[in-house]
Write a structure and sequence with these properties.
Pfam families: Zn_ribbon_IS1595
InterPro entries: Transposase_Zn_ribbon (IPR024442)
Protein name: Transposase
Number of strands: 6
Radius of gyration: 19 Å
Organism: Cohnella rhizosphaerae
Strand content: 5-15%
Strand order of the largest sheet: 1-2-3
Bound molecules: zinc ion
């Protein structure tokens, strides 16, 4: 059995509501804030999907996914979260499409967007540990020990493009 299949079986079970709660907390860690007036109170707009909110002060509508890589997606959040979990193994779009049961095109897009988000997140953090210059990339070897089981490889290294001074 491949590492990806094993990791798929080990993925925690969660539902769409769990994902919405997690996304809500990530987007508004101190509670809802209206993007227009900063107001903290909102209505949920039921008729246009569970992820739409309306500010009680100024009636501005916003969604849970607005301004995130998930904006405009019609793929259930649970598949995005599952994909994020599976990406620990450096999964291909083809395998991802089989495991989370979406089209190859959707899997490719999810893979691409999640990699981009991880890259942006990583670029904001300093490289630590033993640094190596590999080609044009400055790489930190094993800067984060694997937190999964022994079967799940952790990210071996984190790399950043290195521009030679002058
Ligand atoms: Zn408002």
């Amino acid at each position: 059995m491949s590492a990806s299949n094993r990791i798929c079986e080990q993925a925690p079970t969660f539902c769409e509501e769990d994902c919405e709660t997690a996304l809500f907390r990530a987007k508004w860690p101190d509670g809802f804030r209206c993007p227009r007036c900063g107001g903290p109170d909102f209505y949920r707009i039921g008729s246009r999907g569970p992820r739409l909110f309306e500010c009680r002060s100024c009636a501005r509508q916003t969604s849970l996914t607005a301004g995130t890589i998930l904006e405009g997606t019609r793929t259930p959040l649970v598949k995005w979260f599952h994909a994020l979990y599976l990406m620990q193994t450096g999964i291909s779009a083809k395998l991802l499409s089989e495991l989370i049961q979406v089209t190859y095109k959707t899997a490719w897009l999810i893979n691409h967007k999640l990699r981009y988000a991880i890259q942006v997140h990583d670029e904001g953090r300093p490289l630590i540990g033993d640094l190596q210059l590999l080609g044009g990339l400055l790489c930190a070897a094993c800067d984060e020990p694997s937190r999964g089981s022994a079967d799940i490889p952790g990210r071996a290294r984190r790399c950043r493009r290195f521009d030679r001074p002058g």
